[in-house]
Amino acid sequence: MSTRIAFLKGHGTENDFVIVPDPENAVDLSPAAVAALCDRRAGIGADGLLHVVRSAAHPEGRAMADEAEWFMDYRNGDGSIAEMCGNGVRVFARYLQRAGHVAEGDLAVATRGGVKSVHIAKDGDVTVGMGRALLPGGEVTVSVGGRSWPARNVNMGNPHAVAFVDDLAHAGDLLAPPPFSPASAYPDGVNVEFVVDRGPRHVALRVHERGAGETRSCGTGACAVAVATARRDGVDPGVTGTPVTYTVDVPGGTLVITERPDGGIEMTGPAVIVAEGVIEAEWLENALH
Ligand SMILES: N[C@@H](CCC[C@H](N)C(=O)O)C(=O)O
Hints:
Elements: E1 4-12, E2 15-21, H1 31-38, E3 48-54, E4 70-76, H2 86-98, E5 105-111, E6 114-120, E7 126-131, E8 140-144, E9 147-155, E10 159-164, E11 180-181, E12 191-199, E13 202-209, E14 213-215, H3 219-232, H4 237-240, E15 244-250, E16 253-259, E17 265-269, E18 272-280, H5 281-288
Parallel strand pairs: 2-3, 4-5, 10-12, 13-15
Antiparallel strand pairs: 1-2, 1-18, 3-4, 5-6, 6-7, 7-17, 8-9, 8-11, 9-10, 12-13, 13-14, 15-16, 16-17
The structure holds the ligand N[C@@H](CCC[C@H](N)C(=O)O)C(=O)O.
The site of the ligand N[C@@H](CCC[C@H](N)C(=O)O)C(=O)O has 17 residues, from α2 and α3.
Subunit structure: Homodimer.
EC number: 5.1.1.7
Protein name: Diaminopimelate epimerase
């Protein structure tokens, strides 16, 4: 690692991230380094890390460099890699704007889940075009304590199991990943959302994120929940030809999700930079040994 590494801290509806700007992909962010940085007691603390790299400088971004200058190399807080992070893209865009790399308005961001279109509004909210949800079907069950629920399998680039519950408290303390079956449904693990109704086209969720534990928000999770709720409600914009919008309350705020007739999903919410600083190389060396 280089001797002093700049970082920022940001969040989107309290889904929080360490941001490491590294345009030329010069910083060696091993899984152990990411986990140390995201540790809430011994490190900076975050649900995940946004490694900001020029697409052309990253092996997984290079093929998208013509469409999107910047690649979001997203890592979960435990150091694992995920395909996509919806709140992460919004905070990533906020960082690019704050750093002067992009202006308000439209931009494209390369991710492992493909190129995402982002809009930074004058009012401060950031919208991301998340692409389409895949609904693989099949029966899935999730359990907590003595309770079990059927869950909808939704893929937003990353895997989700969406369970409708009577009370969010029934999800318990969510200190461990909720067991699911069959195991073959999610060979690489899953993000699990527990959902209650709040009103017409308005729901609330709690989420256990793969690689992070219970978090205060999950953007891909909120999109998965909006789509699962629409289908439960008998609403499919692909059939009606009319967009549908759901308000999704998360513990850390509110996200607004619209599904369009072509299946495209847009998510809008706040994206905030909280602080910036420098990681001490000596601390990181010690943390890793
Ligand atoms: N918080 C994210 C999702 C991050 C990835 C997830 N934990 C996974 O492993 O798939 C979001 O806002 O979408």
